[in-house]
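Researcher: I'd like a structural prediction for the single chain below. Treat it as a standalone chain; there are no partners to consider.
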Amino acid sequence: MATPPPSFILCCAAHNSRITVLTQFFADVGSSPNGLKKQALFRAQLNRCAAVPLSILPNQKDRQFSNARFQWILCNRIQAPQPGVESFKDKRCIYPSALVVGDDNGRHVRRCNATDVKGYVHDGFRDETNVFLRSAGFTAEIEKKKLLPDEPTLRPGDNWIPDWTIDGVRQKDHAVDGTHPVVETHWDSLSLPAQQQRAATVGVVAEESVEEKRVKKGKRSEQEARGNDFSMEKRCRLRNIHFWPMAIEADGAMSKSFIAFFNLVCDAANELTGQNPAAFKNYWWKRLCCKFHQLNSAASLMAA
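Model: Treating it as a single chain, here is the predicted structure.
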């Protein structure tokens, strides 16, 4: 049997060394305080979207990041302490019990309801999604209202797509509604099995958020005002509207519904406008991922 070349032996040794380091990392994390939470934060980074800003050339305007934002994205990706830049380290959320923003790498402000940070990310990505839809050839609209007779002032989704036929979907009008949860949301109130699931599986929070949107009925006062306790999905179905909830976690993990939506829109772009589907998908995947991380890094760095 031939002796393996030295380069092969060195590669195997390096690979085994990385495995040993990673195994030790999880062992150390698992035995430390908040070990499961740290594992969940690490696991949340293991997705395709999180890698995009660090793996593409900044040769287009929508791929360019300021130094502060790029630093934040890099440190968040590798779970390193954020640099103590002046614009970041001393900021504090207006919520009384919150940490200084720099003390938790800016993650608190991405899940806090006391500020408008969550709305900043949500609205920014909603607008970019509408550009994506219009680029594909749809006559999409943002926050379209007067679609539900029991509550005319309420919009059922962030993005409205009329007259789109999808195999397996009876309705031709679609209300797309997005959310961007953080993996450590409500962490202290979770059961141990729920914490373990988040620590072991990528995208759990995204899927939970989609289901929460699907079955949400609103407050009791809202139900009484409209005269029913139907979920948004059922209310839309009664109006022949396809309610389409989807989620992207703050670190980039996407729900299955978002992936399906993205792929279907890219396929439709070819049918509606004749654009090359592979080129369209490649361009918009990178653009949407970069936009999402632009918004998240800016939100984490902004003053609360």
